[in-house]
Amino acid sequence: MNAIRLVTTAAAALSALCTAGAHAQDVAAGRQAYAQCAACHSIDGSPGVGPSLKGVVGREAGSAPGFRFSRAMKGAGYPWDARKLDAYIANPQNAVPGNVMPYAGLDDAKQRADLIAYLASLK
């Protein structure tokens, strides 16, 4: 019985430790990661080549005011949350097939998490 309790406690502690590290986000680093987005996406609410990223977290995909979205993006059918943004930033064409964003994706999971933290700060 003590062995089971020990294994259960150790597993819970390891899980908590791994989860904390996996979700550590750095808004300042995210601002730096955003630099590669800035050529097409503003953060001030005005559309450019791409839609503004101001307020993107929680906004319905394909619904930023003043931007003309592809049919694929308009039909995505969900609000942008951290999980959906992570998948999209990692591989836009896989996440929303048929979208027209000419970006291959960001492989680095930490940079994506930081970028999403920064985007979440843009209210």
UniProtKB/TrEMBL annotation:
Residues 25-123 form the Cytochrome c domain. Keywords: Electron transport, Heme, Iron, Metal-binding, Signal, Transport. InterPro entries: Cyt_c-like_dom, Cyt_c-like_dom_sf, Cyt_c_1A/1B. It holds the Pfam family Cytochrom_C. GO terms for molecular function: electron transfer activity; heme binding; metal ion binding. Residues 1-24 form the signal peptide. This is Cytochrome c2. It comes from Variovorax paradoxus.
